[in-house]
Specification:
Radius of gyration: 17 Å
Shape: globular
Bound molecules: BIS(adenosine)-5'-pentaphosphate, magnesium ion
Strand order of the largest sheet: 2-3-1-4-7
Structural class: alpha/beta
Number of helices: 9
Largest sheet: 5 strands, parallel
Strand content: 5-15%
Order of helices and strands: EHEHHHEHEHEEHHEH
Helix content: 40-55%
Length: 215
């Protein structure tokens, strides 16, 4: 299965993607995560990406598309993959079409997580992540057993630099302007499956699993 997962910042793409990855054995490709790893390692790519991400701006295509092409061609994607956070613009979608054509494969579905605007800012500002293993938490809804410490690996949790109210509003407006139009692009190909992203994480995943099981 080859899937895209879409939705505004804080919709729960990463949260659902982890569950889909585990249950359907797909490679999870998150461009945001790839950039954050490069930032942590302070590679030239990471340093450049950081200057855009910290402001909530999109990283230029000249950096992003090559990274995705290289990643999709890796062996662990042979069994299928789930793209999270890419494509984010029509030009990225056209580039993805070219890569898929070269590899003679196609996208099976676009999972679109639909959430109330009011939930997004709250989810993002309260998010905490483990810098070591990537596990995600929320200060109100998904608390670790020990305050500020990752349940999985015991590392101190951190807040993403772009998870503040001001940057979130910029990310949301970029989503509305540049990424939302992609839904029409994929709707024309009859690929979009809307999933209600409000409510319990496991209940949302059950709905996702049902639709994926029927593909
Ligand atoms: P990226 O990392 O993709 O961030 P995003 O799209 O803004 O989305 P988020 O990761 O913030 O939210 P999410 O939907 O994954 O939500 P999550 O599951 O974590 O991109 C970051 C930046 O990188 C971009 O701004 C850009 O600069 C750059 N970038 C990335 N890709 C790019 C590209 N293709 N082109 C150019 N630039 C690119 O959940 C959020 C919180 O809510 C968590 O705390 C979670 O625990 C909680 N939560 C989740 N589900 C629920 C629920 N059902 N109920 C209650 N809480 C919930
Ligand atoms: Mg995410």
């Amino acid at each position: 299965m080859r899937l895209l997962i879409m939705g505004p910042p804080g919709a729960g793409k990463g949260t659902q993607a982890s569950l889909i990855k585990e249950n359907f054995n797909l490679a999870h490709i998150s461009t945001g995560e790839m950039f954050r790893e490069a930032m942590n390692e302070k590679t030239p790519l990471g340093i450049e990406a950081k200057s855009y991400m910290d402001k909530g701006e999109l990283v230029p295509d000249s950096i992003t598309v090559g990274l995705v092409k290289e990643r999709i061609s890796k062996e662990d994607c042979n069994n299928g993959f789930l793209l999270d956070g890419f494509p984010r613009t029509i030009s990225q979608a056209k580039f993805l079409d070219e890569i898929l054509k070269e590899l003679d494969i196609a996208i099976d579905a676009v999972i679109n997580i639909v959430v109330d605007k009011s939930a997004m800012v709250n989810r993002i500002v309260g998010r905490r992540i483990c810098p070591k293993c990537g596990a995600g938490y929320h200060i109100d809804t998904i608390k670790p057993k020990k305050d500020g410490i990752c349940d999985v690996c015991g590392t101190a949790l951190i807040q993403r630099k772009d998870d503040n109210e001001e940057t979130v509003l910029n990310r949301l407006s970029i989503y509305e302007e540049k990424t939302k139009p992609l839904l029409d692009y994929y709707q024309e190909q009859d690929l979009v499956i809307d999933i209600d992203g409000m409510g319990d994480i496991q209940d949302i995943f059950k709905n996702v699993a049902n639709v994926l099981g029927a593909l």
